[in-house]
Amino acid sequence: MLKKVLVANRGEVAVRVLRACRELGVRTVAVYSEVDRCAMHVRSADEAYCIGGAQARDSYLQIDRILQAAQQAGADAIHPGYGFLAENPGFAKGCHEAGLVFIGPRAETIELLDNKVAARRLMAQAGGPIIAGTDYDLADDELVQAAEQIGYPVLVKAAFGGGKGMRMVHRAVDMTNALRRSRREAKAAYGNDAVFLERVVEGVRQIEFQILADAQGNIIHLGEREGSIQWRHQKIVEEAPSRALNPALRQEMGQVAIEMARLAGYLNAGTVKFLLDQDKYYFLGIDPRLQVEHPVTEMITGIDIVKEQLRIASGRRLRYRQKDIQRRGWALECRILAEDPFRDFIPSVGRVTQVHEPAGPGVRVDSGIYGGFDISLYYDSMIGKLITWGESRGEALLRMRRALEEYRIMGVKTNIPYLQQILNSPSFQGGQTDIHFLDRRCPPAEENRPQALQAVIIAAAMLAHNQRGEERQMQKTVLDQGNLPSNWKQASRWMGLRK
Known about the structure:
CATH class of the largest domain: Alpha Beta
Number of strands: 22
Strand content: 15-25%
Helix content: 25-40%
Number of domains: 4
CATH superfamily of the largest domain: ATP-grasp fold, B domain
CATH architecture of the largest domain: 2-Layer Sandwich
Low-confidence stretches: 446-499
Shape: globular
Distance between the termini: 62 Å
CATH topology of the largest domain: D-amino Acid Aminotransferase, Chain A, domain 1
Number of helices: 18
């Protein structure tokens, strides 16, 4: 087993990996930027090293500084978490050259899968289903012509990276502007402005299969997750299993996922992604890393995926065969974001004054914050994940709704109200979801709520201003009797927002 692991990340994923290491008796090393000196992952590690300034490019993306910290600490392995350098083949190669174990796929595998078009070609060679699309080395005018041949709507996607730089285009007149903006976002997020096109398949679900592969050539999958609840191409609610798969389809897609991993020479943990159109599915890509939503798979299988990553990186053979993988119950995950859902989801930064996390049977919180922690504008807005498990989907959903009600994060805005809106939607409760669900069925709360809330605040202030003299004395008398509602409630009733 590995002796000491450096976690090249921050926030809740760093804390998650550090805890797994501690349970296996592996010593841990954290790295941090100047603004993360008091972060939870720094407090959780056995030792920690500052690697640079607040900007990610000055710290968490500095390969040389991370490798130097690992050598200085005497670490024998590095876990990249997700985001930052997790899918950077140069980082994996640098670890190998420095004599460190990279806890993830081989550098050449990451490089192959990092190119989304190359991964599509691999699936085509395997005879698998792919969506009509283009290459990534085409000029903008060639992509405009290709879009006419494919047929609108089309999706502009970054060739190297995840959900950033993705845009749906419905008309030819919008194509040039969409390409320009997508290239700019892709360059900023992934350091490469290459994009390609895919035909849009309407009404599809996003289904993903978690895979594990050891150095001896054994590959298994741990079943599927569904990540169809997406806002601006980023998943915010995930669940496992999916209501859309029957046993035969689950077995078929799982076998395709294993074959894809075998063709790619895969090692360690990863995720094969598909789009599902009723009973027809299309290959979407392979994420060569630990995924944000891995806890829902852990909850229904009882397998700690991060521990398995550590064991595989130590050279051990998989402890499970495919027939050993059994699902039990249902799990949901909500991503907790420091964003204001009433102001177009702008990031909310500042000091977290108080945190009250939900608890109870079947409730798990993966978090990277605490009371007194400062949320910075320099990093991703995700500050935690709330996961619930139940014997059935209904029980997991009821627990999630209860847990969201209990969750209190004071000092900054979060997306918890929007998550509650999603979970209260009859369509979501009935499992009638696809990747455009939020656009059609559950639009963001900011469209109507702020005006109504502002009117309530103004009305409450007017009521308070008018309560003078005898009225205030009358209010005191009635309040003593416990019968007069607050100004807020009076104003809300007046506006028709409360009964």
